[in-house]
Amino acid sequence: MTSKPINIMIVDDHVVIRSGLRMLIEHDQRMRVVAQAGNKAEALERAISERPDVIILDLLLGDEDGLSFLPELCEASPNSRVLVLTGVQNPDSHRRAIRRGAMGIVLKEHAADQLLKAILKVNEGEVWIERSMMGSMIQEFNKPPVVDPEVTKIESLTDREREVIALIGEGLKNKQVGERLFISETTVTHHLSSVFSKLEVSDRLELIIYAFRHGLAKMPK
Questions:
Q1: Phi/psi at 201 (5° precision)
Q2: Is 143 helix (H, G, I), strand (E, B) or coil?
Q3: Residues in a beta bridge with 106
Q4: Of 13, 91, 175, 181, which residue is the least packed, with the fewest Cβ within 10 Å?
Q5: Which domains does the chain have, with CATH numbers?
Q6: Is pTM beyond 0.85 here?
């Protein structure tokens, strides 16, 4: 009797990379790719509909940051185990990924068989952290967490509030923001009141400066 294959979802914004990963993974008869996604919206949708055993996630998805929505991905499919496959050699990013719910990290520069081994281990409920990362991670987890107050403020924003901030940064008035988002001007005002409170800014000018400084809005060219 053959065991059930491991169902895998690939989240990467490059079609060619997704195709290559699929060929590599499905060459192993113990695994099969049941879903692919190129951005946050697709990833969350596929995770909910497919409920894969393992989700392979790249941290850089074009203009999106896989690290930022990793907790949402874990929540969308609680029984899925997330394995980060990344070319980012930043120990801080790796530690944050583990803190936010990833079960393992594999660097793209390493051999293909490392990825297959990691998939098997993570699927079994084990954490996969390469030896070169282990020392720094142990030291980091033994330190008391340092919370950046600005990060905490920004993480409290809803997706809609972020959209409003971005449009305010483009110079749009409340009515124009409402038209762009298909919501009423009154609703925009309520969102702005919430944003002012969360970010501790007093007016639109302070908000715009804050948004440019922290990447919540794009600077005009």
A1: -115, 155
A2: coil
A3: 85
A4: 175
A5: 6-141 (3.40.50.2300), 149-213 (1.10.10.10)
A6: no
